[in-house]
Amino acid sequence: MTHIVDLRSDTVTKPTDAMRHAMVNSAVGDDVYGEDPTVNALERKIAAMLDKQAALFVPSGTMANLIAVMVHCSQRGSEAMVGNMSHIFKYEQGGAAHLGGVLLTTLENKPDGTFDLDEFEKRIRGSDIHEPVTAMVAVENTHNYCGGKVLPQSWLDDLYARAAKHSIPVHMDGARLFNACAAQRSEPATVVRGAASVSICFSKGLSAPVGSVLVGDCHFIQKARRLRKMLGGGMRQAGVLAAAALVALDEVVPNLEHDHRRAQVLATTIKSLCLKNFTVDLQNTQTNILLVRIPESSPITADKVVQRLAQVCLSETQGDCKTADDEGVIVKAIYFNSKTIRFTLHCGIEDEDLWLAIMKITFVFKEFEASV
Ligand SMILES: Cc1ncc(COP(=O)(O)O)c(C=O)c1O
């Protein structure tokens, strides 16, 4: 028998008892006709929280981002500027080009998830007949690939002002917007105040089973609603899903800071081991995502470490690396590249799981350290 601590992603979270109860008892209707009272309640609530006019419930974060790009870049061949480390660019199959005829061009993300704003302004195109027309810019908050980084409000406000000067709408991929708000103790409406559109996921750290929302003004959401239908995202009695999302706002959002605290504890412990081959940046572990870096010069690779964390050896169960019931411990993690391991904390991880994960990670990291 083994005890599994799954730190691959916050998408592995499962609906809570309160969510399951709400799902069973939710009032539903046909949402394509706009008649699902629970979906309507969720859309109204989120729009109000973000101080925007309207919202649209969609099946996934990928679809929310795609619809946003397709609305802002409705003229085929328009350009959307995105970070080179953004989810939209790296992990959404180029859907904007595939389905929207949109040219994605990249601004280089800095380690904190931002990009150079002078560069952004310089790169805006459209006045020359040879060029595509820049029709939007996207940011990601928190920034997944940069390790759950919260975009600084001063930087965001500067971006909002500069983009407005050029009439370029800003889309925020806020899959983890509530993590950003919890980390900097800000209201969501403040963080998104200059954004024309925002996407938020309920199926990540918020623990709901399915669903994202796209938020913006009425005109934007009207167009988004048409595109959702075209993309096959028109759901019918979707109130069973929206019910879980509504519970998430009351039950899970207020507790996100515990995930951040646990990420800090894990980061601090790894740092205190003072290992040459595994480093963490404590100050830059801001939310629920922790990146462990392996120096380029090290012969150790992240995939091997992730593989080893998922195995239990005899030396562990015969020694001290086990649960009180003598079970071996598996820690599931992912690697971003050959030198970066990602651990993600979420509400499925209690303090006891954290301590078991720390025990196992310490054991495995020391084993690798001794082997080189
Ligand atoms: C920042 C960010 N945006 C968008 C998505 C896409 O969400 P989904 O998996 O619901 O399509 C993810 C998924 O992990 C993400 O991390």
TrEMBL record:
It comes from the Eukaryota. Its cofactor is pyridoxal 5'-phosphate. InterPro entries: ArAA_b-elim_lyase/Thr_aldolase (IPR001597), Low_specificity_L-TA-like (IPR023603), PyrdxlP-dep_Trfase (IPR015424), PyrdxlP-dep_Trfase_major (IPR015421), PyrdxlP-dep_Trfase_small (IPR015422). The keyword Transport does not apply. It holds the Pfam family Beta_elim_lyase. The keyword Protease does not apply. Residues 6-293 form the Aromatic amino acid beta-eliminating lyase/threonine aldolase domain. Keywords: Pyridoxal phosphate. Belongs to the threonine aldolase family. PANTHER family: L-THREONINE ALDOLASE, L-THREONINE ALDOLASE-RELATED. This is Aromatic amino acid beta-eliminating lyase/threonine aldolase domain-containing protein.
